[in-house]
Amino acid sequence: MSNPSHSEPDIRVRNFAGGISCPNPFWLASAPPTNCGEQIMRAFDAGWGGAVWKTIGAPVTNVTSRYSSIDWQGQRMMGFNNIELISDRPIETNLRELAEVKKRYPAHAVIASLMVESTREAWHDIVVRSEDAGADGLELNFGCPHGMSERGMGSAVGQVPEYAEMITAWVKEKARTPVLVKLTPNISDIRTVARAARRGGADGLSAINTINSITGIDLDTLIPRPNVDGRSSHGGYCGPAVKPIALNMVQQVMADAEAVLPLSGIGGIANWADAAEFLLLGCGTVQVCTAAMHFGYRIVEDMADGLQNWMRGKGFHTLDDFRGLSLHRVTEWKHLNLNYKIVAHIDEQKCIGCDLCHIACWDGAHQCIHLDRVTGPIDGHVELHSIPASHEAASHASVTLTPVTRRERAKDATSHGPYPTPLARIPRVDETECVGCNLCSLVCPVDQCITMVEVPTGLASETWDERTKGAACSAEPQIT
Amino acid sequence: MLSTFTEHPEIRERFGELHAPLTAQAAVVESNRCLNCFDAPCMVACPTHIDVPGFIKRIASGNLRGSGRKILEANVLAGSCSRVCPVEVLCEGACVMHRYDRPPIQIAQLQRHAMDAFHRSAEPLFPTPPHAIELRVACIGSGPASLACAAELRRHGARVTILERRALPGGLNTYGVADYKLPTADSLREVELIRKTGVEFRLGFAIESAADLEALESEFDTIFLGVGLGAMQKLGIPGEDAAGFGETAGILNALQLIAAYKTGHITRMHGAVVVIGAGNTAIDAAVAAKRLGADPVTMVYRRGAGDVSAFDFELEHARQEGVQFLWHRLPVAIRRADDDGLLLDVQSVEIVDGKFELVPGSITTIACRTIIPAIGQSPLTQLLSEFRRVDVEKGRIVIENATGQTSNRRFFAGGDCANGGREVVDAVADGKRAAQGILAAFQAATAEAVSV
To answer: Are A208 and A190 in contact (CB under 8 A)?
Structure first.
């Protein structure tokens, strides 16, 4: 028997949504990476645990071009956008290849994403054919935000709880495998459709689909992207930029008693750490598209390996050991402790003197990080809290010379160069004024240089809810 | 155009650029590395206080025109500065990335990127000043200090004339900077931009007597002295004067050599060359001799490798070009060899109690074709002594640092003649400050005249 502490954590998925098992929780989302059987088999060889087939339905005609993206500070595809429709291949071809994939990869999850016209017959037909081909589960595409929605499908269904419930119920009349409903984020409250899907009998959910977007406008041609012969159309936004939105919606659904179902998390997942966050909010599997489109299937290696190593460090043996552990840590604002106080602390040994925290605090927060260090004996009045502009003015007025001799250069080395940061450039936090907002620690480029340190207030925890309820009680008229 | 200059193709070939410019995409990637520090140390370290993060972030955002204008606001010779500045001890040396265990931002390369784009745009340096002011200024010398002073004055509407004794304007930027750093044509391109702002140039205009000065004083309200330093110092050893530079062999000082190849008057060198001295100019001359075909090229210096006044990266560059070094040697005599070459006697020296002492019996002889003294420039004492009311100390014109004003209130000065010989960027900073000093003095005088 092996020593448990030396065995690799088990990341297999068992019985997700009432019946789907696979080698790991990493699925390719329904999208171009899952367009055909050849791709999906290569993806499985690379290490993906499952794949949701590019949405199967009556074939469409696509346009060129189809994608556009947002670059940020030289990084490509921080956000990604597409106006591609569902599969443009015949249903027969997709299902024949699906059967072939299932035959060769029986242990992997192959989910058929479906979208057909909104009639009971059409849905019954596609459900039966997909399951006959061997699909391990079905994902109802109620989320596609562009093109298909104009034809009464995709998010046109997903935005109306009654439609979503009705079609889910039709599907469940025939389905023998788990049915997942893919939710659109393009709705004021994602829980309304999640609840409807559950009422309709769904076994699970996938969230989120892409977000309506216009990624940008070409400032030479004035044509928005992507450009289709001089015009564009809103598309679906995804990639790293949408992860926070997706996490919030996942939390909303998972914390809602009427909506909660096994959930396949989607939205900006690019590595194991992103995946772990979705799992911590209760997801059973995760789906990836943009990162695979950016770097290829090979990214899954680190996703699986990294997740296992993190689990190992945390002492988790299976996915169930940590699934949903962070869910109860999210609450409504009114339940947060008003008496908790933290302040910024700057590690002078780590500070590189960029002073971004100073300007961020002055211009973007509460004016409590100062450049007013004083060294040596102090004689007389010391002016503190000079504003940022006066620092800059003094620098501009200073007379600087190029060091010429070696002695000058050596002297100069104390103020700059690969040496410790001069004290004058290390900002000081006024802890009495600091509101503990985190901004400085967020802008600081150096890891662990600015940390937020708890300051015990000596007060018992009190939330806004408790405080106002108490007030309401005391204000109530006394009836005797 | 002010002057026609055609680059010698052979020189262009032998003096290819030391650093290739960044591609547009590489510039964006590099500019995105910049942290955009508050009150950035790089800006403080620059004598002209270019808003470095300001121009770099404009490159990142695609605002290349804004980037160029931001730079030129602070430094009108930013193109040449981006090529010749010792950035390792200035902006890039001050970059906080050093303390972050990362290479500093390539500020010089990014500045060059923005400046190259600006020069391609053929835009004027700045818009024509809205109104002229009744101030006539003469700038003596056409090097970086005078150019910066003239541009700043023109920006505020003054009338400016630059007087230059040589045929081409630009001073050491044109005649004295190694061509692989700054080609002559690029220096002249920058001068041309300044001329187009309305600065008048009088080339081949030497000031040789008190009468010349008096004439200037009557023509102009204020005179800016940007005259630089004088000729290179002599070695002061026997045989130095006898061995004049000829067709085949001789003595040629470092600045003469650099000016001669940059203007295409020397395109080849042969045989062994000895450079005496180990400053930055000595290195430029040694590398130039090497590239012109001399072999071997040996630098002779009276101290050790750890004591050279050249920057470390310059010394390293010379090593990479194949220059050899002979440390702790002092030249003692020059003799003519039988084959028409030269014989340089050098003797070992030691420092005893802070003084150089020759080691008896240690004389060795180096056979060479050319000897290049590079032991510093002497101050222009003769000319300066003619400005009788301008105080001179240790060969430097004494100025008030913040304004450039000399002891004679009509005379201002800046650049090497005032700071004793520093970098181009120091000269630009001096010139700009002096212009602001001149303008402030003019405004004060005008206000006084009005109130009276």
So the answer is: yes
Q: Which residue of B has its CA nearest to A353?
A: B96
The alpha-carbon gap from B135 to the nearest alpha carbon of chain A, in Å, equals 25
Strand pairing class (B297-300; B273-276): parallel
pLDDT of residue A166: 96
Interface check A216 vs B, CB under 8 A: no
Kindly give, in sequence order, each residue whose CB lies less than 8 Å from that of residue A72, ignoring residues fewer than 6 positions away: A78
Nearest to A111 by CA among A139, A141, A92: A139
Average pLDDT, rounded, for chain B:
92
pLDDT digits (tens, 9 = 90+) for B375-423: 988 777 666 666 667 888 888 999 999 999 999 999 999 999 999 999 9
Rounded to the nearest angstrom, the minimum Cα separation between A423 and chain B is 13
Q: Are A204 and A285 in contact (CB under 8 A)?
A: no
Q: Which two tokens stand for residue B440?
A: 């402030």
Long-range contacts of B384-389 (CB under 8 A, 24+ apart): B384/B417, B386/B209, B386/B210, B386/B213, B387/B213, B387/B225, B387/B411
- Number of helices (H), then strands (E), belonging to chain A: the values are 15, 18
In a domain, residue A409? The reply is no
Question: Using 50, 70 and 90 to split pLDDT, how confident is the model at A330?
Answer: very high
pLDDT of A472 strictly over 60: no
Q: Answer whether residue B131 is part of any domain.
A: no
Residue given tokens 């009509």 in the structure block: B410
Q: Are residues B397 and B331 in the same domain?
A: no
Count of residues making up chain A: 480
Q: Are B204 and B26 in contact (CB under 8 A)?
A: no
d(CA B355, CA B296) in angstroms, rounded, equals: 31
Check A402 against B28: CB less than 8 A apart: no
Report angle CA A204, A205, A208 to the nearest 5 degrees: 165
Q: Domain span at residue B299? A: 250-373
Half-sphere exposure at residue B76, Cβ-oriented, CA atoms within 13 angstroms = 33
Rg (CA), chain B: 23
Q: How many domains does chain A have?
A: 2
* Inter-residue contact B293 to B269 (CB < 8 Å): yes
From CA A80, how far away is CA A90, in angstroms rounded?
27
Q: Are residues B280 and B339 in the same domain?
A: yes
Domain count, chain B: 3
Cα separation, B22 vs B34, whole angstroms: 16
**Catalytic residue (choose from A144, A238, A351, A444):** A144
Here the tokens at position B296 are 């071997």
Contact flag B433-A399 (C-beta cutoff 8 Å): yes
The Cβ of residue B390 has, within 10 Å, a number of other Cβ atoms equal to 20
Q: Which of A170, A176, A165 is nearest to A112 (CA)?
A: A176
- The conformation of residue B233, written as its DSSP 8-state character, comes to P
Helix axes A120-133, A161-174, angle to 10 degrees: 50
Distance CA A351, CA A421 (A): 7
Q: Are residues A51 and A131 in the same domain?
A: yes
B103 to A371, A445, B100, B320: CA distances (angstroms):
26, 15, 8, 22
Please, what is the end-to-end C-alpha distance for chain A in angstroms? Answer: 72
Interchain CB contact of B100 with A (< 8 Å): yes
Structure-derived torsion over alpha carbons of residues B314, B315, B318, B319, reported in degrees to the nearest 10 = -140
Q: Determine the Cα–Cα distance for residues A206 and A249; give it in Å rounded to an integer.
A: 11
Q: B373, B398, B415 — which closes off a domain?
A: B373
Q: What is the largest CA-CA distance in chain A?
A: 92
Q: What is the mean pLDDT of residues B101-123?
A: 96
Answer whether residue A275 is part of any domain.
yes
The CA distance from B230 to B233, in Å, is 9
Does A395 contact B86 at a Cβ distance shorter than 8 Å? no
- What is the crossing angle of helices A190-199 and A243-254, to 10°? 50
Record: contact B421-A404, CB cut-off 8 A: yes
Q: How far does B418 lie from chain A, in Å, by closest CA?
A: 12
Element (H, E) at B351: strand B342-352
